[in-house]
Amino acid sequence: MTAAIASLTVRVARKAAEAQDICSLELVAADGGALPGFSAGSHIDVHLPGGIVRQYSLCNDPAESHRYLVAVLREPASRGGSAAVHDAVREGDTLAISLPRNAFALAGHAQKHLLLAGGIGVTPILCMAERLAVLQADFEMHYAARSAARMAFAGRIRSSAFADRVQFHVGDGAAPQRLDLAALLAHPAPGTHLYVCGPKGFMDAALATARAQGWGEEQLHWEFFAGADAGPRSGDGAFEVRLASSGRVIPVPADRTVTQALANAGVEIMVSCEQGVCGTCLTRVLQGEPEHRDSYLTPEEQAANDQFTPCCSRSKSACLVLDL
What we know:
Low-confidence stretches: none
Number of strands: 20
Shape: globular
CATH topology of the largest domain: Rossmann fold
Mean pLDDT: 91
Order of helices and strands: EEEEEEHEEHEHEHEHEEEHEEEHEEE
Distance between the termini: 15 Å
Helix content: 10-25%
Number of domains: 3
Protein name: Oxidoreductase
Domain 2Fe-2S ferredoxin-type: 239-324
Largest sheet: 6 strands, antiparallel
Structural class: alpha/beta
CATH superfamily of the largest domain: Nucleotide-binding domain of ferredoxin-NADP reductase (FNR) module
Domain FAD-binding FR-type: 5-107
Number of helices: 7
Cofactor: FMN
GO molecular function: 2 iron, 2 sulfur cluster binding; metal ion binding; oxidoreductase activity
């Protein structure tokens, strides 16, 4: 299986603790030159020790060309990525990374931006706030975490030029300051766009509340840090995929993902997160009905059933015909 291609070699210029269980990596070009530009909401694929590839949002000012800054939460149920960052990566190490990509961009036509960060989801949201402040755009930011100790970059935010546009919400604090999604998302204005990033439960709650309050899908923007478990589930069945270009039929056993079955058959497609988060492996479906398990496609895109993420999604029909 082919992961996203690494295009840059960077050096870890600084590794720092930003909050409880969160560390940051400041990455600079290994040759000392400038790094390619990026836009707010961008992420990079980082090739970590042990052959692991993970995606991390860039959380420094997009105007900077001398560094990329990422922050990583140590996950108790880590599949290896966060443990590698926290335990194996050291200052001075060189890492391979991809060019920045953006699937979580600011809506240029929005009249107002409402930024909503949960925990480690502050990374792309902070980058957006930095950019919007420079543009003198109308925005407000809400940052929620379980406790103040788990709030990365809180000091940077409080000392920023846009500090008065940010509200902090901690779960272990007084009730009046806790995040009230229903109140915050009530009465959506047509020109306002909502951006949400954080743990899946936080994001599911925020997006469900927004939809219930009448926000249109075109107003909603999100990025998940972790998606579906790509492993087998109880009740999963076998099915087949057929390659449209050759007519070749490849069986997908109940205990394998589509990408694994394809790879075993010598058919490689580009993958990265393998959790249905990034969209790298997105594949057109010509016939059949996918069983969507991703966090990348919108509900409308999933309902169209003309594309799916083979890294985690499966099939409701006996066969899927893929544009491969």
